[in-house]
Design brief:
alpha+beta, BirA Bifunctional Protein, domain 2, 14 helices, 9-stranded mixed sheet, 5-stranded mixed sheet, 2 domains, 442 residues, 23 strands, homodimer, globular, Rossmann fold
Amino acid sequence: MRLSNFYLFTKKENPSDAYLASHKLMVRSGMIKQVATGIYSWLPMGLMVLNKIKEVVVEHHVKSNINEMLMPTIQSADIWKKSGRFNDYGKEMLKIKDRHNNDLLYGPTNEEMITDIISDDLKSYKDLPKLLFHVQWKFRDEVRPRFGIMRCREFLMKDAYSFDLDYDSAFFAYCKMFGLYMKIFKTLGLKVIPVRAESGPIGGALSHEFILESNEGESDIYYDNRLLNISIDQVNLDNKAEIKEYYEAVTNLYSCTSDKHEELNFNKNVPKDNQKLSKGIEVGHIFYFGTKYSELLNANFTNNNGKEALIHSGSYGIGISRLVGAIIEANYDEKGIIWPKEVSPFQLGLINVRNDNQVSLNFCESYYNNNASNFKILYDDRNARIGEKLNNMDLLGIPVQIIVGEKNLVNQNLEIKDRKTGKVNLVNIEKLQSYLSDNYEF
Amino acid sequence: MRLSNFYLFTKKENPSDAYLASHKLMVRSGMIKQVATGIYSWLPMGLMVLNKIKEVVVEHHVKSNINEMLMPTIQSADIWKKSGRFNDYGKEMLKIKDRHNNDLLYGPTNEEMITDIISDDLKSYKDLPKLLFHVQWKFRDEVRPRFGIMRCREFLMKDAYSFDLDYDSAFFAYCKMFGLYMKIFKTLGLKVIPVRAESGPIGGALSHEFILESNEGESDIYYDNRLLNISIDQVNLDNKAEIKEYYEAVTNLYSCTSDKHEELNFNKNVPKDNQKLSKGIEVGHIFYFGTKYSELLNANFTNNNGKEALIHSGSYGIGISRLVGAIIEANYDEKGIIWPKEVSPFQLGLINVRNDNQVSLNFCESYYNNNASNFKILYDDRNARIGEKLNNMDLLGIPVQIIVGEKNLVNQNLEIKDRKTGKVNLVNIEKLQSYLSDNYEF
């Protein structure tokens, strides 16, 4: 992408209402723009990251044989009245009257709707188990929206739902989703801690949160850091024994939110050296709630003895838009964002030191146009001062920068800057490709 | 995809409220389910088609250097009060009060919001021209939603917006989008007629609708059928001269909606043999509205004489969800849907005549598992009667079916059924790949 052809307007000033680094940096780097209190537009640079994260999450679900569907944003109040949550949910639910004075609402979550849908289709034990997911905008009318897209009102969430014959089968679905989440966060290049958690308004007996460690995080967590040594990489999510073994290995170690924390148990079960107190941001939450919604919304099936039984369910959420902010909280410095290469909107930033220099201009144009390796390049082709170009590229956080000037070109060299370390290496043009492969797996 | 692992529940009965074929067929083939009046969930089979169409539309825009962004579904009423449309839009606008009693609305379109966004960024003539688009859910509170997803309340739309220095530049953007739309509909395998149209509530002087011909269509159109001979294929959308020449060649021929129709001109300008009266479904609509919104929302820029001037704009919509229904209206028979291969959710349907036959079972399993050519296959691996499998596959509308039975396998043959013609050919296993390439360009 040529910067001259990209809708990108970076800002020098921080937004006056911003406290978190991610909020400041997303506005300054032209990723988002607030259009109403707690409601944001995603500008091209922001949307690229959002889509990238969404793509990783969707691909992992599809690969695990979880069917993608899409429920609407607007829901009828009827099903929420049946479940009792139309009144219980409180003022965070955005309630709406349509032109015929019917009660609607903007979905804050989808347990009621999905249960209503599957109760029409899943009639026999032969139809179970089923796992479904969707990625859709949700709305929660926060009393005081803040922290940019981290605690906003309209946000993008992936929510999955499992439907099973009985507890054993449902527990396997829960373990599978637990493992899938760990694989997803690994693919996104993130260090995420699974912790036992309260179920809150969703309800149910079993619940875990997934916390991305960050100094500015709003959640306090306590865990046994030996759980970091248990790898998900080789676990086959469709193998019941393997996934349960993984789940038990992880969850047998102490790990929980402050709500669930018991100091006595922590000290008894975790050696001092392994005790970790930390802060982080919730980026995922999974629930097993058994037959709660099936009972309220009549989701029955006929079992293999010909008898009616209630479907067992769970729900599994990842905050897609929230992840964008959370990833920045864990990856920035005083100059700007430092994208992990897994989610970066571009792989390479290409900077021409002087646009009026024919030698460097020719090199940049031909490198960008030929781009034999098909890298995703952001090419700053603007006629701007080099200082501004360098600062801007640092702010945007693309992992690798190629800085092209005549002085180095004469010796067949380019400056390659690593955004994270700030280190600049002179690399011979002939060796550029192998340098990028060796150092960045490009 | 194995049918045994796919959330697909086809129905034998038509929905009682359905009049249009597309509505009946989408419900019966398990693509959608109504969850509130005029509000639908997209089940996995439906979402695959919706996503496919979205993908084609997005790719074409990106390839034409139009930047993708994403505006939220919920908007502040403030900008609509500025433009005067908060009251003018009528009861189709879904108005909302949040917990602090602020006026919000569910966006039915985005002229106000995009103009508000760009007015912050586009300050100089050097920042223009710009073209942006997004694909987002919209809501129009129809008084009587009907025809399934063709006239529903929550629907998916692609809307693009152009921002230019002056009329000449804006007119080129309009011509470019006109040509882009013709390329998109061609890629989707659709015969779409561009017609001159009224601007309606969007306003502006210049407007075209894009009509997919269909006997049950709600729009009457009149056109000179010589416009079907003008091809968009070789036109370079970034070449001003080429795209204007194309636009003028097409729009010099008579073509309009019934609102704009003048019988006298039609007869005077179009030879009898070329006069075409037809019905169709609106699937796209483009508008040039000049400085209308720039004036109301203060979108100025400094021109190259240092003077303030108003930005010229246009908007360009394609009904993504509506296209799913429109395509079915143009492609079905009494047995079910007949997907054009460009939008079909699967390329091949694989049917085992008898699941209890080891020979046919082995072939199907190995063909599906190996799938050397990486086709998208829907494999009916259910233990169901062959009649039910055949009817079901016809209903689903996948263009090519491979029917596998022992009798033919003994002679190394498979039955290949073309869904559109209904013709069945015996094809030797060795020649299957070349048969598919030759006949379906797979």
